[in-house]
Specification:
Mean pLDDT: 85
Number of helices: 4
Shape: elongated
Order of helices and strands: HHHH
Structural class: mainly alpha
Largest sheet: none
Radius of gyration: 30 Å
């Protein structure tokens, strides 16, 4: 009995509206499936790895420069502490990037 009620359209309702609603629901369902589907090639993992490499590089340079600046302030050796520690920071960053690249993929 409940099925008979749902099949009957109310008086004065246009059948075009019903078909439009059905098409909209199907389009929403397809869009939800498209948006929520994970990438098949693992691009999320690659994106995270790229961000980590960038963070290592920028962090190494900024951290080295900051430590060099602090050394220069206390030892009054400006700009040598900054320059030396900046290069040390870059070296540490490259070492970390090489370590990341040598890991086996998960």
């Amino acid at each position: 009995m409940a099925d008979e009620k749902s099949d009957l359209a109310p008086i004065g309702e246009d059948s075009r509206i019903t078909t439009l609603d059905e098409r909209l629901m199907a389009a929403r369902k397809r869009e939800d499936e498209r948006v929520n589907k994970p990438a098949p090639d693992g691009s999320d993992a690659n994106y995270r790895l790229g961000n980590r490499v960038l963070a290592e590089l920028v962090g190494g340079m900024v951290g080295g420069a900051f430590l060099g600046w602090v050394i220069d302030q206390f030892a009054k050796t400006s700009p040598w502490g900054l320059l030396v520690m900046l290069f040390v920071g870059v070296g540490v960053a490259f070492r970390n990037i090489i370590r990341i690249s040598n890991r086996r993929p998960e």
